[in-house]
Amino acid sequence: MDNIINKIRHGPSKMRIGKKGITENIIHEIKNVLKRDKVIKIKCLQVVPSESVKNIAENLSKITNSRIVEVRGKTIILALQGME
Q1: Which member of 25, 44, 61, 64 lies 3.0 to 4.6 Å from 74 by CB, making a disulfide possible if both were Cys?
Q2: In whole angstroms, how large is the CA radius of gyration of the chain?
């Protein structure tokens, strides 16, 4: 699992969250990517306040039944629950 996370960490983000925030479409896409790839890297755009990123990560984790691997700056990495 560490190899997958390192690959995701150094690669481009698969999803971007902007001024509309967390929408049903974003949730659906995140679930699809997690189902397929087990890990997803999400970038919050500049319009998202830095202090909101941790809260967004926690909400996405709960909604998508995933765990937070890392929150660094405006970048979030989530992995499926149970993936070690």
Answers
A1: 44
A2: 12
Report the distance separating Cα 14 and Cα 21, nearest Å.
Answer: 16
Q: Which CATH superfamily is domain 2-80 in?
A: YhbY-like (3.30.110.60)
d(Cα 45, Cα 53) in Å, to the nearest integer?
10
26-75 pLDDT, tens per residue? Answer: 999 999 999 999 999 999 999 999 999 999 999 999 999 999 999 999 99
pTM of the model: 0.91
| Residue 74 φ/ψ, nearest 5 degrees | -110, 25
- Please enumerate in sequence order all residues whose Cβ is within 8 A of that of 2, keeping only pairs 6 or more positions apart, or say none: none
Q: Where do the structural domains in the chain lie, given as residue ranges?
A: 2-80
Separation of alpha carbons 76 and 13, rounded Å: 9
* Residues composing the chain: 84
Cβ of 60: how many Cβ atoms within 10 Å?
A: 21
